[in-house]
C-alpha cells in the first residue's frame, strides 16, 4: 500500500502561490525567544569569542587552500574568479567545525527553538571573498529544502556565524522581518541536477519581482552587520538574500542548518530526485 504524503507547502508548479505558515516558529516553550517567534530571526552580538574566531578562521583558510578540498565535489567555486565560494558538509570534513556544531551555545539553542533533538541537514562555509564575490538572490531556504530535499514541515533553523567583520558594505545577510509566516510557492519546475546550477546562482525557487515587492513593502528589509564572532539565527522560511561583495573585505561565515529529528527528510516534494547527501543530509543521527 503506498502512503500518500500531504504536501502542506506546494511549490514549483505553474503559478506562484502564497500559503500561510501552518507550523509553529518556536516548537519548544523556551523563554527568551519571543523576538525570534515574531521576526523569524535572532541576532547575537557575540556567539563565539575572538580567540575562537581565530581558530575557525585558520581552519577555513586551511580548508580553502587544500587542493584536496578544492577538488572535492563539496567545494563550490565562484563562477568568475574560480575562488572557492563555499565548502559543504564542513562538519564532516573538519573536526574543528564538528566541534562547533556540538558546542552547547550552538546545538543547545537549536534544540530550544525546535523543541527536540536535532541533526545537521546542511553545513557550509561561505567564503565570499572580496573584489566581486557574488551574493545569493532572494529566496526561502525552506522552499528549496522542501522541494528538493523533502523536508515536510518548517521545523528547521539556520545559524550564520560571522568569521570576518560583516560591514554594511561587504554583502551581508538581508532578511525580511516576519516573512517567515508566509510560504511563497514559486512557479517553475525543478530542472534535473538543479543543485549544480543553484548553488552558484539560484533560479528555480526564486520569487517574482511582484511577490518580492509585496513582501518587502509589507515587512521591510533588515541588513545584518556585526563583528567576527557575531551570529544570526534565522527560521528556515525567512525570505533572505545577500548582495555581491565588491569591497576588499571578505564576508566569510560558517552556516549550520539544524533540522528536528521529528522532521526528517522524505522524498522531494517538487524535484525528480533528492539532492546529494552532502547538501541535504540523509543521516538523521542526532547531534550529541
Ligand atoms: O540550496 C541550499 O540548500 C542553499 N542555498 C542557499 C542560497 N541558501 C540555503 C542553502 O545553503
Ligand atoms: Fe539561503
Quick take:
By secondary structure, the chain is of the alpha+beta class.
Q: Which ranges are low-confidence, i.e. pLDDT below 50, for 5 or more consecutive residues?
A: none
What order do the helices and strands follow? EHEHHEEHHHEEHEEEHHEEEE
Q: From the coordinates shown, what is the CATH architecture?
A: Sandwich
Proportion of strand residues: 15-25%
Shape: globular
Describe this protein's structure.
This protein is an alpha+beta fold. It has one domain (40-263): Jelly Rolls (Sandwich). It is built from nine helices and 13 strands. The strands form three sheets. A seven-stranded antiparallel β-sheet has the order 2-11-7-13-5-4-3. Strands 6-12-8-10 form a four-stranded antiparallel β-sheet. The longest helix is centred in the first third of the chain and has 15 residues, at 50-64. It is globular and about 50 Å long. The N and C termini lie far apart (36 Å). Ligand 6CS binds at residues 122, 124, 136, 139, 141, 144, 198, 202, 279.
Topology, pairings included?
Layout: E1 17-20, H1 34-39, E2 41-44, H2 50-64, H3 67-71, E3 75-77, E4 84-88, H4 90-93, H5 95-102, H6 104-114, E5 118-126, E6 136-140, H7 141-147, E7 156-162, E8 173-175, E9 182-185, H8 195-198, H9 209-219, E10 222-223, E11 231-235, E12 239-242, E13 253-260
Antiparallel strand pairs: 1-9, 2-11, 3-4, 4-5, 5-13, 6-12, 7-11, 7-13, 8-10, 8-12
This protein binds ligand 6CS and fe (iii) ion (FE).
Ligand 6CS binds at residues 122, 124, 136, 139, 141, 144, 198, 202, 279.
Amino acid at each position: 500500500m503506498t502512503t500518500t504524503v500531504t504536501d502542506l507547502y506546494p511549490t514549483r508548479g505553474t503559478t506562484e502561490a502564497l500559503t500561510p505558515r501552518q507550523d509553529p516558529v518556536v516548537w519548544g516553550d523556551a523563554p527568551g525567544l519571543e523576538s525570534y517567534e515574531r521576526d523569524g530571526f535572532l541576532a547575537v552580538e557575540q556567539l563565539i569569542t575572538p580567540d575562537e574566531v581565530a581558530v575557525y578562521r585558520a581552519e577555513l583558510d586551511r580548508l580553502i587552500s587544500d587542493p584536496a578540498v578544492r577538488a572535492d565535489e563539496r567545494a563550490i567555486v565562484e563562477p568568475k574568479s574560480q575562488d572557492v565560494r563555499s565548502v559543504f558538509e564542513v562538519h564532516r570534513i573538519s573536526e574543528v567545525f564538528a566541534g562547533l556544531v556540538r558546542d552547547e551555545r550552538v546545538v543547545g539553542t537549536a534544540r530550544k527553538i525546535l523543541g527536540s533533538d536535532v541533526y545537521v541537514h546542511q553545513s557550509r562555509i561561505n567564503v565570499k571573498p572580496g573584489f566581486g564575490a557574488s551574493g545569493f538572490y532572494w529566496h526561502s531556504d525552506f522552499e528549496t529544502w522542501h522541494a528538493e530535499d523533502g523536508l515536510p514541515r518548517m521545523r528547521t533553523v539556520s545559524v550564520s556565524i560571522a568569521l570576518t567583520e560583516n560591514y554594511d558594505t561587504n554583502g551581508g545577510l538581508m532578511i525580511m522581518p516576519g516573512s517567515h509566516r508566509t510560504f511563497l510557492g514559486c512557479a517553475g519546475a525543478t530542472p534535473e541536477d538543479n543543485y549544480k546550477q543553484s548553488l552558484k546562482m539560484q533560479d528555480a525557487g526564486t520569487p517574482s519581482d511582484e511577490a518580492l515587492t509585496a513582501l518587502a513593502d509589507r515587512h521591510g528589509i533588515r541588513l545584518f552587520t556585526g563583528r567576527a564572532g557575531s551570529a544570526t539565527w534565522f527560521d528556515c522560511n525567512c525570505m533572505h538574500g545577500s548582495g555581491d561583495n565588491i569591497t576588499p573585505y571578505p564576508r566569510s561565515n560558517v552556516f549550520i542548518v539544524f533540522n528536528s529529528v521529528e522532521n526528517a527528510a522524505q522524498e522531494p516534494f517538487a524535484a525528480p530526485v533528492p539532492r546529494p547527501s552532502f547538501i541535504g543530509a540523509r543521516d538523521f543521527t542526532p547531534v550529541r
